[in-house]
Automatic annotation (TrEMBL):
SMART domains the UniProt entry points to: Lactamase_B
Protein name: MBL fold metallo-hydrolase
Domain of life the protein comes from: Bacteria
Alphabetized CDD domains for the sequence: ST1585-like_MBL-fold
Entries under PANTHER family matching the protein: METALLO BETA-LACTAMASE SUPERFAMILY LIPOPROTEIN (PTHR42951:SF22), METALLO-BETA-LACTAMASE DOMAIN-CONTAINING (PTHR42951)
Residues of the Metallo-beta-lactamase domain: 24-223
TM helices/strands, residue ranges: none
Listed InterPro entries: Metallo-B-lactamas (IPR001279), NDM-1-like (IPR050855), RibonucZ/Hydroxyglut_hydro (IPR036866), ST1585_MBL-fold (IPR037482)
Record organism: Nonomuraea mangrovi
């Protein structure tokens, strides 16, 4: 299948084809003794992911674990569907996200407020997962991949209060979710992901520092793909956060409303990203994944809490 890439170490990247786009959201299959899917993608992508697993030899009763870095719908929207397709799989999530997977009604209601009619095309509906099948992680935890190989989870909020990073003992791969931002493989651009309501600068920087301390061999971005230049990329992700916060702070101090703040930050950061110079589909992808409106709104929300 053309949406599967072998990354070595029995790890496969699966393009979930979010909303029909390529290169937007990745899920990853670790194909050990106890096959594990990291990130499901959206509900509308669930059949794509299921078919990719089937083509890699993982049938309905073979998947041991589904783990999500956090419960935003582009990462975990397909959890209920995958739980139904793979009835033996345990569903692993941070304890702050567990109840929303069991009863997604509040999560879906707030998502509908943010996305409106776009919700159905972009994400679809997160269906509930039987609470008995959900394993809730604390600040650290470990998922058994079989043969002594584990996927260790590390609580890494800042982007979202239910976010974890996951490190594979077999490969040294670190699944960074959205805590290190959004990476665009076509151009090598990296930009923060700071949506409301949970963004907090120090917490986000602490999460990146934790990732550095774990000494991973490679970063696997949910958006999008593997990156080998670990320290350099994590340093860049901290720098990006500081730049976006500084610019949004200036707009906040000048009393700008959201639209004007977004326009200013977008204008002053544009030169940092090759993708935005292209004015093509790549630029559109970037905006969809790490939109300036959502980033600036998240930073303003945080600024209103810390310096009203």
């Amino acid at each position: 299948m053309d949406n599967i890439t072998a990354l070595g170490g029995d790890v496969y990247e699966i393009d979930t084809r979010m909303a029909g786009y390529a290169g937007i959201t990745a899920g990853y299959l670790i194909l050990g003794d106890r096959p594990c899917l990291v990130e499901t993608g959206t509900s509308t992508s669930a059949p794509v992911v299921r078919d990719a697993l089937a083509s890699l030899g993982v049938g309905p009763n073979d998947l041991a674990t589904v783990v999500v870095t956090h419960i935003h719908l582009d990462h975990a929207g397909g959890v209920g569907d995958m739980a139904a397709y793979f009835p033996q799989a345990q569903i692993v999530v941070h304890e702050k996200g567990a109840r929303h997977l069991a009863d997604p009604s509040r999560l879906m209601k707030s998502a509908r407020m943010v996305w409106g009619d776009q919700l159905d095309t972009l994400f679809g509906e997160l269906s509930p997962t039987d609470a008995e099948r959900i394993v809730a992680l604390g600040d650290t935890g470990a998922i058994d991949l079989g043969n002594g190989r584990t996927l260790a989870s590390h609580y890494s909020p800042g982007h979202a209060k239910h976010h974890v990073g996951l490190i594979d003992s077999g490969t040294g791969d670190l699944y960074v979710g959205d805590a290190a931002g959004v990476y665009l493989p076509q151009t090598g651009d990296l930009r923060p992901a700071t949506p409301p309501p949970d963004f907090d600068l120090q917490t986000a920087l602490d999460s990146i520092a934790l990732f550095q301390a774990l000494g991973p061999q490679r970063l696997l971005f949910s958006h999008y793909g593997p990156v080998g230049a670990v320290q350099e990329t994590l340093e860049r992700s901290a720098e990006e956060l500081r730049i976006w916060v500084d610019l949004t702070k200036q707009a906040h101090e000048m009393g700008m409303d959201l639209d004007h703040a977004v326009a200013m930050v977008r204008d002053r950061t544009r030169e940092r990203y090759t993708a935005l110079k292209a004015e093509d589909e790549t630029a559109e992808h970037f905006e969809l994944l790490s939109g300036a409106p959502s980033n600036v709104a998240g930073i303003l929300h945080w600024l209103d809490k810390v310096s009203p």
